[in-house]
Amino acid sequence: MKQENSGSVSSSSAWKVVTQYPSAGEKVYDLALGALLLEVRISSQLVAGERNWHVSAQQSKPSESITFSESAETKAKALESVGLAWADRATELGLPTVDWSAIAAALLAVRGI
Q: Is residue 100 included in any domain, yes or no?
């Protein structure tokens, strides 16, 4: 199914984690839905004695990628904030519409969040 903003609308069960690996203190997850590829990076740090999670997401084509990054007290909340930021700017930036609950489910299946 195509969206006017040149991106595909994701199906709630179709996102798959195709690769995961550590990189410079982060865990990187490459997800795919058909030809649409998304890279999600998750890391943490201690802030005033509390663990803080950082999540960033971008399309996997570096030449045209825009990264959205957010931090929160849990990985799931940081991912949700990234999804909200993405959705807020998707039309303006010509990004595909992404089902972030499906992304969360795919990451949860591999213990990413």
A: yes
